[in-house]
Request: fold
Amino acid sequence: MQHKELLVVGELNVDLILNQIQGFPKIGTEIIADKMNLTLGSSSAIMAANASAIGINTAFCGVVGNDDYGTFIEAELEKKQVSAEFIKKTNEHQSGITIVMNYDQDRANVTYCGAMEALTIDLIPWNDIKGFKHFHLSNFFIQKGIRKDITEIFKKAKECGLTTSLDLQWDPENKWDFDYKECLPFVDVFMPNKEEIFALTKKNTIKEAVSCIEEYANVIVVKMGEEGSIAFKNKEEYKATVFNNPELVDSIGAGDSFNAGFIKKYIEKAPLKECLRVGNLMGALNTTAAGGTTAFTNLESIKETIKSKFNSEL
Reply:
């Protein structure tokens, strides 16, 4: 890759999405779904694909099984112009899969982690990483192979001269075993959503939650859905309002799209408020089409859509 910018490290899986399901599953019975789609899944992959679509030269580091789903994942990333050169294949695990059962505006998910748990600190391409500008890691809790080394990972990325960002995402076990006092000093941008920062800090207001971690953090960015987004740096607060989409299709991947937009501007050294604005804009763009990456076809169409729907620009 030439002119490397963003290295995304994280989980990889396919999404098997079922729609128009006739009822709810019950043990010992069978129901029918009238529509099915197999797509590229994982929050990390959505972020990487959409970052690439808006003009960031992006590579991915993760693990897939040596199987058809693994081949599909690599091919889908490469279609999005994301380099798969740092994706490893393993014979010990099958590729991860999430079964998504959609019911109108709600859904139920079942995930098999598989090869997601095989990513370790040693598989991160440390010999090549100095060629990048920024290091992003998503979905910490479901990647058991890196959890014990999370502080060392970010410390090494900083020592290599990269800026860094972390999106913990939700802890399925609801234990929130993340040592933010040790890790966050090496994270330039910490990117939880509102519910995640509440769960992590055991607080129920943004002010209280941020006060728990700001001593250890550099920049804290909180995604707040319809309330927009907010950032904190050196006791200063920055806000950006949401871009409303009255024709919302779904919000799958909106937070990951926010991450892509924010990091694009962060790499460009834009002011924090501009980073927030573009993050909100990419989150809104995400909701104009089904799934996490469908709205991000190419840069020209993205610019046309955000101009026509939101009267804005990148």
Q: What stands out?
A: DSSP finds ten helices and 13 strands in the chain. Residues 10 and 44 are 5 Å apart (CA to CA). Residues 272-286 form the longest helix (15 residues). The mean pLDDT is 94.
